[in-house]
Amino acid sequence: MKKKDTSKKSDSNALMEIVKCPTKVVLLWKVVGTGELDEDLEAETKAECEKHGKVGKCEISELPGAPDNEAVQIFLEFERAKSAINAIVDPNGRYFGGRVVKACFYNPGKLRFLDSAEHV
């Protein structure tokens, strides 16, 4: 008897759960680790994500003391929620530099607080 591949179905269900309540702000993490930021990351990330729609703001922060795979967070504010949905679906679970990228929506109201936080 042949075993069914349920990994694609569970991935699809997880993705459907993520896009239930979309916002215009996307949070990416696991793109790079602690101390791996460079001056090109913001421009490269913004350019890559703009294939889904206009990105108004791209901000990167590194959380001191956080685990390596969670320390660097990239926030992208799109002009439209539909663009943000596409930006979630595309990179989520893809490999970048040997890491599996994670993406989710982020509360736009909380993004305002990042303006006073330290950014790279």
UniProtKB/TrEMBL annotation:
GO terms for molecular function: RNA binding. Residues 25-104 form the RNA recognition motif domain. Its main location: nucleus. GO terms for biological process: alternative mRNA splicing, via spliceosome; mRNA cis splicing, via spliceosome. Keywords: mRNA processing, mRNA splicing, Nucleus, RNA-binding. It is found in: Nucleus. SUPFAM superfamilies: RNA-binding domain, RBD. Gene3D superfamilies: 3.30.70.330. It comes from the Eukaryota. GO terms for cellular component: precatalytic spliceosome. Coiled coil: none annotated. This is RNA recognition motif domain-containing protein. The lineage of its organism: Eukaryota, Metazoa, Chordata, Craniata, Vertebrata.
